[in-house]
């Protein structure tokens, strides 16, 4: 009898569907949430699309830094598209379900684009390090071959990591309780729902955290070298100019890793799933929306390129 009960509580992955509980179950709040997240998603897509078009249309911005920025903007669009449209559809249809395949697909793409964002920020930090610490060798080091190779390696590592985690989820068995206290399928929450042994999955998750920590340490090391080089510049004007080239990237780094650490701390210190879900919004939705504003408001070259693009568009 015990064996039968154990088997019936196990996974039925062929027919399984998960429930995304979202941010609130209050029916009166759903129209507000729909309008809010639709606005944020449209701002994210349009803002990052403008960044990509401005960079591609202005030959002065065909440099390694803006090459990485255009890839970051594309990644931000994909990152938001992985989660927000499904959330909007669930609110509109008043449904909380997501299929097993859909959930696994969402986990996979989330990890791909989160990994890409992580590596792109590290590549941009390295670009700023070479530009400030080794300016005479900048064009030699940061050539098109190296830039393309960094993008390719970032994509390959992110793909391999996401596929490995997805394959490990496929081997899990799930109980009858398949409620995810988020508005998207988060890897850690999906693993928590498993009835089978999740030791391998947890080890892989820790390895993923270590990988993210290594790239973050690389960014910190780059900026330690950058700051030490800037402080050796004799003129105040030269120091300001050097700092200004890093300001936008540094703001994006603080936003991305700050919200990521905020989500981690929130999930560690609180047992309230709704608070963790709200914290996840800060990590998955806010940074992709804010990045275009950071780069367009703090970067004179980007502001000029955007003005030219909008001028040509309005008079074409």
Q: How would you explain this protein's 3D organization?
A:
The radius of gyration is 22 Å and the shape is globular. The chain has a three-stranded mixed β-sheet with strand order 2-1-3. The termini are far apart. The chain has helices at 2-8, 30-57, 64-93, 100-133, 138-141, 144-170, 187-192, 199-231, 236-269, 273-284, 286-298, 300-315; strands spanning 17-20, 97-99, 179-180. The protein has 316 residues and is mostly helical. The longest helix has 34 residues, at 100-133.
Outline the fold blueprint.
Elements: H1 2-8, E1 17-20, H2 30-57, H3 64-93, E2 97-99, H4 100-133, H5 138-141, H6 144-170, E3 179-180, H7 187-192, H8 199-231, H9 236-269, H10 273-284, H11 286-298, H12 300-315
Parallel strand pairs: 1-3
Antiparallel strand pairs: 1-2
Count of DSSP H/I helices: 12
Largest sheet: 3 strands, mixed
Rounded to the nearest angstrom, the radius of gyration is 22 Å
- Tell the overall outline: globular
Distance between the termini: 75 Å
Calculate the mean pLDDT score and round it: 84
Task: Point out poorly predicted stretches.
Answer: 1-15
Residues in β-strands, percent? under 5%
Q: Walk across the major sheet and give the strand order.
A: 2-1-3
Order of helices and strands: HEHHEHHHEHHHHHH
Helix proportion = over 70%
Counted beta strands: 3
Given the helix and strand composition, which structural class is it? mainly alpha
């Amino acid at each position: 009898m015990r064996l039968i009960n154990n088997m019936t509580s196990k996974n039925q992955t062929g027919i399984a569907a998960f429930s995304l509980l979202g941010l609130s179950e209050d029916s009166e709040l759903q129209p507000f949430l729909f309008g809010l997240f639709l606005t944020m998603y449209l701002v994210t897509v349009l803002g990052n699309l403008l960044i990509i078009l401005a960079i591609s249309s202005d030959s002065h911005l065909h440099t390694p830094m803006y090459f990485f920025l255009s890839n970051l903007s594309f990644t931000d669009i994909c990152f938001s598209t992985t989660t927000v449209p499904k959330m909007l559809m669930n609110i509109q249809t008043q449904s909380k379900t997501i299929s097993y395949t859909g959930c696994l697909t969402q986990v996979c793409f989330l990890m791909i684009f989160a990994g890409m964002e992580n590596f792109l920020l590290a590549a941009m930090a390295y670009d700023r390090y070479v530009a400030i610490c080794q300016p005479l060798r900048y064009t030699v080091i940061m050539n098109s071959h190296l830039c393309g190779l960094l993008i390719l390696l970032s994509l390959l590592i992110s793909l391999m990591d996401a596929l490995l985690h997805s394959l490990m989820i496929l081997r899990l068995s799930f109980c009858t309780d398949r409620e995810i206290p988020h508005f998207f399928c988060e890897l850690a929450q999906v693993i928590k729902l498993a009835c089978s042994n999740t030791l391998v999955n947890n080890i892989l998750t820790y390895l993923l955290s270590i990988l993210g920590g290594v790239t973050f340490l690389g960014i910190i090391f780059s900026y330690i070298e950058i700051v030490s080089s800037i402080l050796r510049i004799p003129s105040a004007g030269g120091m300001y100019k050097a700092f200004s080239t890093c300001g936008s990237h540094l703001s994006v780094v603080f936003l991305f890793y700050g919200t990521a650490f905020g989500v981690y701390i929130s999930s560690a210190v609180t047992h309230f799933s709704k608070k963790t879900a709200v914290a996840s919004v800060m990590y998955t939705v806010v940074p992709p929306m804010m990045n275009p504003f950071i780069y367009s408001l703090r970067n004179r070259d980007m502001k000029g390129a955007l003005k030219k693009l909008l001028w040509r568009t309005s008079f074409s």
